[in-house]
Input
Amino acid sequence: MNPPSKPPRPADAASGAPRGPGVQPALRSETLLAGATVRVIEHAGERYQLRLTRNGKLILSK
Output
């Protein structure tokens, strides 16, 4: 017999996105990039690049 699996996180019924304390509504990538193909994000004193590829994928790198 298999061990019980974790119950799924509660989700927004319309989008399937996780919800709960500390979870904010989703942001659209177009909003984050604001027409650019690269956006620098600072987090905990480190800089990251969020890049939009020619194929429409997002890459986050340090």
